[in-house]
Amino acid sequence: MLSTRPNLARDISIAAVALIVLLLLPYVWPSRMMNDLVIRVSAFALFATSLNLLVGYTGMVSFGHGMFFGFGAYAFGLSMQRLGVSIPTAILITIVSSALLGLVVGAISIRLKDIYFSFITLAFQMLLYSTVIAWVPLTGGDQGLMGGIPRPPFLGIDLSIESHRYAFAVTIMVVGLLILRQIVESPFGYTLRMIRDNTERATFLGINVFRAKLTAFVIAGVFGSLGGMVMALFVSGAYPEFVNWTMSGEGIFMIMLGGLSTFIGPAAGALILSLLNDVITRGTEHHGLFLGAVILLFALGLRKGVTDFIADWFRTRREASTRSGN
Amino acid sequence: MARKRAELDRRTVLKGAAAGAAATIFAPNIVAAQNKVVRIGMPTILSGRVAQLGTSSRNAVIMEVEKINAAGGLAGRQIEMVIRDSKGQPQEAARVSRELVNSDGCEILLDAEASSGSFAVQEVAKDLGVLVMHTNSETSSLTADPKIRIPLAFRSCRQGIHDAVVSGAYAAEIAKAKKINRWGTCSPDYAYGRDNTQLFVEYLKHFYPQAEVTTEAWPKLFQPDYTEVITRVLQNKPQALYSALWGGDLTSWVDQASIYALFSQMEVFAINMADYTVLTAVKNLPKGIHSATRYIKTYPATKQNAAWGDEYRARFKEYPTNWSWENWVGIHFIAEAAKKANSADGKKIAEAMRGLKIDCPFGADGTVTMRADDQTVIGYAIGWGPTISQEPYVPEVKGASWDTILQLEAEWKKRNNYT
Fold first, then answer.
1. Which CATH number does the domain housing residue A108 bear?
2. Is A259 a domain residue?
3. Does B138 lie at the interface with A, CB-CB under 8 angstroms?
4. Average pLDDT of every residue of chain A
5. A153: domain range?
6. B26 and chain A in contact, CB less than 8 A
7. How much is the pLDDT for B31?
8. Which of A167, A255, A298, B202 sits at 20 to 30 Å (Cα–Cα) from B258?
9. Which of B173, B175, B167 is nearest to B240 (CA)?
């Protein structure tokens, strides 16, 4: 079904070019700081884009999406530390377990609407956070998973080597975003948009709204957890802050900064927020004040994300050229 | 035509902005390469609820680095501190530490993080192969556990197991004298609070087997209202109470417990009381709360310690904290090891630091030693005593026996399969 979509080839081409550019970047611009930034943005881009599948495409404003980010980091870290499995197996465990978590949390949460949905997702996240803090023998409590995450080589890839880790992170990000793109552009993606715009109409058309929402919730959870996994690889650990509500808040900020009407908006927001954080933290201890001011500017002043403005600009330009062509 | 010119202008502006941003973000690499100073990166907590601890760490380091630089720096190279806020978040501590090394050209890390951050910094140091001195993490496993320990990581601060032995011994002595058998505990409900309390009880029973814990209260971290836990403790009427509350939590708890006259009904042992930040913040400090020394300028009772406390206070208009002296020890160990190795190279400093003994105002006998086998500091002054509400706050400190600490620590390591 997907192969019939006319833009599939274009999406794959864009993803391939993006991947090549990102893989070549360290050779063109060798900077360990740049590599670190790209790895972190890769993790956050997956997290924010998966959240936008719920917020932007389905109209489900989840305040608890950080639970998947943190869960992914812990599931991956614990699989590697406790089970001693290979990295592909740990990734598989992370995907399957986060899908199960999404299924359970989603089955309960999506029965509620609007703000009630938002708050029950937040409640689940805080439940997981409390569990992580309290279950010290397993999670290390507030100190997180200590002692580093083992990174045994697999298929010629050694994630203890920085260049391999970088390539692995950007590949996961680009492939993840490509899959998410195909999902939102598929008939299922348009079903989600219809549910967002008019749930009653979707129901009358015979769509099983519950099932569609649950599927979206599980997919978002899986990709959010992959973001957490990339972050766990980067910091070689997992910490309660990954599961805390502030992580969900950052996801929302990323979407607001980048824009929720374009597919790439949340990923752009992840980049902007990371850059803002790095630059502001470098310059002042009052980073909360400055970061808050920037977010206020976007929320109250501009009321759109950066990519929304760019998309509008292109649209206006296209319309203007069409008019002048007529 | 006009439109074309506008487009070109816009592009020029965009290119300029991009170049400017890139220069701002990545320029420190170039700067670092051109400098001959040795840069030491210091991630610490400069914002949020425990910012005062990070600030007091920074103050102590700035004060000492000036002196070390005046004396020639690290093997002839002047030290330049690059200090960044980690916001108390481990992932941010990891990011900032990587940035300090990769972008700012720091050759050594002085990790002034709380425990969770220090484990994240340890991973960065392992990854990047840089010398790291943990100056604040009290979690014993950081250096005790061989699975976590790395050759280039050292610790210059007190640690949980040492505290527990000393606390248990002191409390047991009072329990024996006053026949205190029924104990209660009231500690924050997170890893530090639980670990600390469990170890205290273990060593209290080691020294005084008749001790029995009859009530436990676990208030949440940063809990504003302690009425429930205070009344529960009072209802159970233990003869003594141990608490690992700290900072603002301890201040609030003492203020609220005073209203219920808790301190007149039982002996209270609050390990984190004797730090100026708490002692000066409590509105009506009741007499006789037992505390371990964190930092007070009267213990150890030496001229050097008093002079350092006064110098710090004169400069920063506040007293140093527990984290301040621990950072003093950290930066001085690096400086002395560099002198011994005649090099500012991290690996050579590390080699010289193993087993190094230095003069120190905070040493039990005027010195502290960087134990070679687990690269952690021993011999620092540690004692317990009852507090009063004005200077010197802890007038009679009973110093700890390091022979006992080391003997019981060795047994503890064996029990935990660390040796």
1. 1.10.3470
2. no
3. no
4. 89
5. 2-244
6. yes
7. 44
8. B202
9. B175
